[in-house]
Automatic annotation (TrEMBL):
<feature type="domain" description="Fibronectin type-III">
    <location>
        <begin position="230"/>
        <end position="325"/>
    </location>
</feature>
<dbReference type="GO" id="GO:0031430">
    <property type="term" value="C:M band"/>
</dbReference>
<keyword id="KW-0677">Repeat</keyword>
<dbReference type="GO" id="GO:0045214">
    <property type="term" value="P:sarcomere organization"/>
</dbReference>
<dbReference type="InterPro" id="IPR003961">
    <property type="entry name" value="FN3_dom"/>
</dbReference>
<dbReference type="InterPro" id="IPR050964">
    <property type="entry name" value="Striated_Muscle_Regulatory"/>
</dbReference>
<dbReference type="InterPro" id="IPR013783">
    <property type="entry name" value="Ig-like_fold"/>
</dbReference>
<dbReference type="InterPro" id="IPR036116">
    <property type="entry name" value="FN3_sf"/>
</dbReference>
<protein>
    <recommendedName>
        <fullName>Fibronectin type-III domain-containing protein</fullName>
    </recommendedName>
</protein>
<feature type="domain" description="Fibronectin type-III">
    <location>
        <begin position="127"/>
        <end position="224"/>
    </location>
</feature>
<dbReference type="InterPro" id="IPR036179">
    <property type="entry name" value="Ig-like_dom_sf"/>
</dbReference>
<dbReference type="Pfam" id="PF00041">
    <property type="entry name" value="fn3"/>
</dbReference>
Amino acid sequence: ELTDSAEIMCKSGELTSSCKLEVKKGESKPVIDFGDSVDAPANHPITFHVPFKVTGTKQSQIEAKLVKDGKPLPLKEVEVVVHEEKVTFTVKKPARGLSGKYQIKISNAQGEDVKDIKINMQDVPQPPQEINVTDIFQTSCIVKWKPPVDDGGSTLIQYVIERQDLSVKGGWHSIAEVPATEPTTFNVTDLIHKKEYKFRIRAVNKIGSSEPNIFAKPVLAKDPWDEPGKPTNVEVVDWDKDHADLKWSKPESDGGAPITGYVIEYKEKFGKDWVEGKVIDGDVTGATIDGLKEGTQYEFRIRAINKAGPGEPSDATKPIIAKCRFVKPFIIGDDLQNIV
C-alpha cells in the first residue's frame, strides 16, 4: 500500500542497517487530451499533435495508432512519433476523399484510450451546379446557379462569373465576383446586341478556385421577339394628284410581339432610294399617304412594326401616276362651227 512507505532498520548485535522504503503509485493507462476534429489543407502532409497523460511511475512503452474503418493506417500512409507527453501524427498523402471519421488509439501495458475524431482534408470546392441563363434581351441577361455539392471542406468565399465573347478571338474574362452569402444570381447588363456569348462560373474558398462549370449553350444577345414578317397583298386602291389610298394584309408572323403600327414607304418609279412616307399607329390594314407630286410616278411598299422595330418590307406595288383619275367631261368652246 502507498501508506507502507517508511524507513526500515535491521539490527544484528551491535550492527545496524537501515533503508528507506518508498511505495509509489504504478502507471495508469494513457488519457488522451485532444479535440474532436482536425482541419487542414490537403495540398501537403497534415501533421497534428495529440497530448496524453499517464499518471504514476512509467513502467511500459507507449504505442499509438491512427485508425480508419476499424483498421490501423499503415506506415506508408501515416507517420507516428511518440514523445514524452504527446504523439505526433503525419498523414503523408492527404486527399479530400480521405476525409471522414478516424480514431486515435494510445495504449500502454495498463490499457488503451480511444478518441473519435473527424479529419477534414480541405481542398478547392467542386464546381457550381445547374448553371442557367434566363431573361435574355438585347443588352442584358440573368445568370443563375446552385452551390457546389462539396465546398472542399472550407466555407465558400465567393463565386467568379466569367464570359467569353464568341465574335472575337480571345479567352475568358471575369465580369463579376458574387459573395457566397448573397443569392446565387447575377444580372449582366453590358451585352452588345446580336453578339454571342458563353458563360461559366467558379466557386472559391480559402484553398482556391474550383474548376469552372460552363453553361452549355451560346447566348445570343437579342430580345425574345423578332421583327414582324412582311405584309402581303399590298395594292393602291385609289389615288389622285396629291395622295394615294393603300390597303394590305397582315404579315403571317408578328415576330412574337403584337404589331403596333405600319410604315408606308415610297419611291419614284426610276429612283433608287425608298423614303419613309407615313407611320400609322395601330394594327390597321389600310391608310392614305398625302403629299405626292402631281404627274410623278410612284411605287409603294409597307413595313409592319412591333417592339423589335420595323420588319421586312412588302413587295412593291404596281406604279401609279399622281393625277386625277376621274375628270368630268367638258367642251372646249373655241372655234366651234354650226354645221346645220
